[in-house]
Design goal:
Helices cover 62% and strands 16% of the residues. The chain folds into 2 domains: 101 residues, Peroxidase, domain 1, CATH 1.10.520.20; 71 residues, no CATH class. Helix 7 links the parallel strand 1 and strand 2. Strands 2-1-3-4 form a 4-stranded mixed beta sheet, with helices on both faces. It starts with a helix and ends with a helix. It is elongated and about 70 Å long. By secondary structure, the chain is an alpha+beta fold.
Length: 178
Amino acid sequence: MAGRDTAARRYAEAAFQVARDDHALDAWQADLSVLAEAVAIPELREVVEHPAIPFAEKERVVRRAVTDVAAGPMNLILLMVRRGRPAAIPRMRLHFEELVRRDRGIAKAEVRTALPLGNEERAELAQTVERLAGRQVEITEVVDRGLIGGVAVRIGDQLYDASVRSRLERLRARLTTI
């Protein structure tokens, strides 16, 4: 897996350089998303990963399945298939998206709540998370009933835990040391 992750990172970095030089980051990101989702379809994945199917046939199937993408992203995916790296395509896409976020100064945050957030809560929490991060943040919301209540926010490797479960665990730890 480490080899595939290294390969995915290298392909993503090369694609990012080309896309940035062409001022086409958004277009590349959209096209790579479409291509990665298409290659994840079980029938198509089976074709591109099968070692006995010739590359020409794999290329024909991919080009027929995905028609509305630019040549650059399509050629990158086909290169990865030709070199036996189709399983690295999803990770390459994630690395590419992370490079785009970093280039734009956007942090990624995961917000865990016990219940789904309402629109007002979401907006207020987004402002708080951006203040904590010191920059614009892309938030992923996760409902985790185990939190009981409150919120836990992860920005990069920083965890801000204001959940009821965390508070109860800290209280239990204090009571057992008395």
